Amino acid sequence: MLLNDLRDYNASLLQTVLFKDYCPNGVQVEGRAEVRRIASAVTASQQALDNAIEWGADAVLVHHGYFWRNEDATITGIKKRRIAQLLRNDVSLLAYHLPLDAHAELGNNAQLGKLLGMTAQGRFGEQNIAWLGELEQAQPLAQFVQQTEHDLKRTPQVIGESGKMIHKVAWCSGGAQGYFEAAIALGVDAYITGEISEQNFHLANESGVAFIAAGHHATERLGIKALGEHLASRFGLEHKFFDQANPV
Ligand SMILES: [Zn+2]
């Protein structure tokens, strides 16, 4: 298919214009006009580009691309090497950040809910990016943490009493520890996100709401892979997800 058609389809599927984001969503680096093979990865790291190009990808699909709001705008150093490699190989980079977190089926939060058995009942936070719901079955924190570790293949960092019963939950993939207070105000038993900050420890202790830092990378592997698979089946493209172990 044509890169421009892929771009337009994604823009309408993920409703990218509705989001106020910290980076451009869509084609960030333009490569060849025809796309047959798409590689996906969480982050457009050098390793992700190497894997994609070695596999013969025409386009690379990521959640974390380039050109973030507060970064140095110059194309030098690490950024120069990455972009030069894409341009030299005529490979496109397509990035979808907040619109991918938010998508009702393919998004990181939708996929995370499905994986961990959390049923969505509502949304909250800036641009309604965080999700609210409940576990299919109430269970002690220790049991839910064990399941999270198994499903995401990463040991979460947890603040909370292991015997506390968890039923009502809130979650947001990635670095969404800033929504913990909003989650507490909603009366949940636990909040699940990717990363934890120092103050979350005290907020968890003082509120009695458990905090589960399940991994920024681990909670954001799901959406981009689901999007790649969706595009492959919809347009008959070849797709491969390249995972790069990341402990954060
Ligand atoms: Zn992220």
Number of strands: 11
Largest β-sheet summary:
6 strands, mixed
Structural class: alpha/beta
pLDDT < 50 stretches: none
Percent in strands: 25-35%
Please state the overall shape, judged from the principal axes of the Cα atoms: elongated
Distance between the termini: 35 Å
Q: Could you estimate the helical fraction of the residues in percent?
A: 25-40%
Order of helices and strands: HEEHEHEHHEEHEEHEHEHE
User: What is the radius of gyration?
Assistant: 19 Å
Count helical runs.
9
What's the overall average pLDDT, rounded? 97
Strand order of the largest sheet: 5-6-8-9-10-7
Bound molecules: zinc ion
Q: Mind explaining what this structure looks like?
A:
The structure is a single chain. The protein is α/β, with parallel strands linked by helices. It is 38% helix and 25% strand. It has nine helices and eleven strands. It has helices at 3-13, 46-55, 77-88, 98-102, 108-116, 141-152, 180-185, 198-207, 216-235; strands spanning 26-29, 37-43, 59-64, 92-95, 118-124, 130-140, 157-159, 165-172, 190-193, 210-213, 238-241. Helix 5 packs across helix 9. The longest helix has 20 residues, at 216-235. The model has no long low-confidence stretch (mean pLDDT 97). The chain binds zinc ion (ZN).
